[in-house]
Input
Amino acid sequence: MRTPEEYCSSLNKMKRNVYIGGDKVGRDDPRLLGNLKVMQTTFQLAQNTDWEGVITAESSITGKIINRFTHLAQNPLDLIKKQKMIRLTATRVGGCIQRCMGQDAIAALSVATKEMDEKLDTEYHQRFMSYLREYQERDWAGACCQTDSKGDRIKRPHEQEDPDAYVHIVEEKSDGIVVSGLKISITMAAVADELLVIPTRALTEKDRYYAVAFAIPADWENVRLITRPAGLRERKKFKCPYTEMGVSESVVVFDNAFIPKERVFMCGEWKFGRRIALLFANSHRFSYTGCKPAVSDVLCGTAALAAEANNIERVSHVTQKLSEIVGTGELAFAAGIAAALYGEKTSSGTFTPNETYANVGRRLMGEFIYHEFNILTEIAGGLSVTLPFEDDFLQEVTKKDLEKLMKRNPQMSYEDACRVWRFVENVAASSMASWYQIAGVHGGGSPIMETIALNIETDYESKKNVAKYLAGINEELDQSKQLKSMPCDLS
Ligand SMILES: Cc1cc2nc3c(=O)[nH]c(=O)nc-3n(C[C@H](O)[C@H](O)[C@H](O)COP(=O)(O)OP(=O)(O)OC[C@H]3O[C@@H](n4cnc5c(N)ncnc54)[C@H](O)[C@@H]3O)c2cc1C
Output
């Protein structure tokens, strides 16, 4: 497994293809430092023996110990450990751990390549598994490029005025393919070793050139990453881990990029577009049952700290509101555990989470995210958006005035109060706050996608049969399917 330093040093050797604010920059650009810090955490913790078995796993391919972010879950326990890893690592970085996207993409590709081979007599699975062996051995961090720019939302890929609205095959050659098009909102692409590209939606036969999946190094020729970093204002005195973290999303431009055959995992199999898209979405929504409870932990902890600073910690409406955040975060976490226990062993050997439980967990957190921020705001008061700048707390004259502002809870020191309110500002009212709100709604797919997934999975007839039985319309209630359904063997 790589150390954080080895990870950064390989990024620094990459060709320049990252654009930020009009500049073509290296991966060591200061605006990417926050994002790098988050990613480094995933390498650093893997070196820590306390995290053994949580952030490390035994590879199902080589039997070697690898970083779990590169691992394919083989059983329910593997999924539960993944969920735990995501929650704990995400808590340490204050929210999104980012590296799960690549893990969810490899899971989707491992299953879909096997199924394509079985149905269509293709040879993708072996090809993908030898790629994955290298991915694990080199301990790569992969970004998942799923979301296409999509142009006119009502039109299908082949109907778009500009074909680049969806990544597509421009040319097929004996040794590979040439692709063009735009993927958007791609988290951590600028700090990734690899880009894993998969379709974003169900496709029709006319969309077959849009049925394409592949992997390439993130600095590949004819690939541009137009990147928007997000982070927090740097602190002068009251430095803290939270402000060192950041994130970035990229518009990933494929401009007639050549993809060698050994890295192509789907090429025209349009019927499997939907399958790969849903496999990734399902795996990623399961990941959300780890990271969203972590976001709840951060919001709940911040609200409780603000309550302490305001000396209202024991007031009943405060404890009531804090328990609401706990209730939702833990319910989503429990949905993840259920998704793992009722998951499915696919023909590839990869174990996938139960779709219903993964989707309800993700949906709950998506619907609740603004409410959690509202609770924090209600408890903290308006200071998060009116707090004077840090310099004013340091300057001699204004410092004396502001000391009075910080006097709320007699048990809390001036310095701690300064830290609490600056942190509340960072969590509740900053560019990162908005990022977490919008990521909470759209990350892993818009809310409608969860509705679609749940409607595919749910047998409404069986629910109607319950009502028919209870209403006296039917004399019998067949529950044989439910009686047989059991959690998977944990081993
Ligand atoms: C912080 C963040 C990080 C992300 N990271 C990644 C990442 O790493 N990798 C990745 O691949 N993606 C990523 N995404 C993208 C995410 O998956 C998308 O935002 C999400 O799928 C919604 O797509 P969109 O943003 O294009 O919105 P749209 O698809 O434009 O949705 C806007 C609205 O239009 C509706 N709509 C869209 N199409 C139709 C239609 N045909 N008919 C009816 N209604 C329609 C939607 O339901 C929604 O209400 C990220 C997003 C965010 C916010």
In short: Residues 92 and 232 are 16 Å apart (CA to CA). The chain is about 50% helix and 15% strand.
